[in-house]
Amino acid sequence: MISASLCSFLNAQPPTQPPPGSASAQATAPADSPGGLSHHDRSFLKKAVGGGMKEIDISRAVMDRLTHSQSKDLARMMITDHTAADVELAALADNKGVKLPAEDATISDDWSKKTGDIDSMYAKEMVSDHLGAVKLFENASKSSDPDIAAFAQKTLPALQHHLMMAQDLAKAID
Predict the structure, then answer these.
(1) Exposed, middle or buried by CB within 10 Å (0-12, 13-18, 19+), for 143?
(2) Confidence class of residue 35 from pLDDT cuts 50, 70 and 90?
(3) Is-above-0.70 flag for pTM?
(4) Topology (CATH level 3) of domain 37-173
(5) Does the first or last residue of the chain, that is N or C, have fewer Cβ atoms within 10 Å of its Cβ?
(6) According to the 3-state scheme, what is the secondary structure of 125-140?
(7) pLDDT at 103 over 90
(8) Quick one: average pLDDT of 109-132?
(9) Contact, 51 vs 129, CB < 8 A?
């Protein structure tokens, strides 16, 4: 009788959870959205599309004011590559039932009003943004959701290339 009571007590106890934020916690995070995605994966989709829209908006806002051909090449690449990635990302988010944030018009406005060495400011912003994007996509490439992981793995080399180009531009300008 005591063993039966002990078994009932143990079976009624909640399972132990890994520490919040740990890799195992992210991997075993409950599916908490209609599409069955973890909070981490939903956050990735929102941050990734927000970052892509920011790259596009900044690049469009400064394109006509860039003076270096290398800066203009980078801006064109940002617009082309991030537009394509954001279209694919929007479709993935839609399939997963994740509502993405709206475009932030203030980014474009802020950058269209900047004065000074726009090429240098642009290069530094692209380096900073892409350092964050590469880290974001490296983490997402380990997602337990195969669609999220595949998208991140497929997109990561382009982001790494963008980072390298932005770093080269920053060095060339300074």
Answers:
(1) buried
(2) low
(3) yes
(4) Ferritin (1.20.1260)
(5) N
(6) HHHHHHHHHHHHHHHH
(7) no
(8) 95
(9) yes
